[in-house]
Amino acid sequence: MIVGGGLAGVELATALAEQGAEDVVLLEAGPGGDLAHIHLAHPQAAATEIVFAPERDPYFHRPWRSGAPPHYTGISGLRRRLGGRSLYWHGVVLPLEDWALHPPGWPAEIVAELTTGVGGAPSWYDRVTEQLTDWSGGGLWDPAQPARTSIGGQEFRALPRACRRRPGTDRWEAYTALDAWRGPDGDVTPP
User: Which of 49, 60, 76, 141 would bridge with 54, disulfide CB 3.0–4.6 Å?
Assistant: First the structure.
């Protein structure tokens, strides 16, 4: 049983189904009928307003009050619908920087799996980058950005974005695991 049908929950359900699991239950508090990315469903200005003025979004829910505003106020909250925030994000993929992975925080075997791979297998960063590049049609990296930048003595990679344009339109969408469930007609059917 997976509680929460946001980006992580849907990814996990999809991965389990791909491994042959047939007894997976995914629970989501919000509806499952409106599954379009916000930038496909609304014009650019309206989509931006819904993200930054969440009171206009019928799916926005904040079940808490912040004891230390402005933290966890404003746009902080839940987007209660199947797909969750994956239907709102701008597709920025943030692999952890090399300097952030060094001990004492991360076990060496996890760092190796993420960054270099183990036993001849590609790293998880490489695998996910390849999957997102395929999904986006090859446009994951913005060619106008430098490959690396130094700020404050730390080196940073360019930000890949898991986004793609809808053919024949000026509309775009960011990656959502729901696409693994989407058929040729555009309808979403869980595996």
Answer: 60
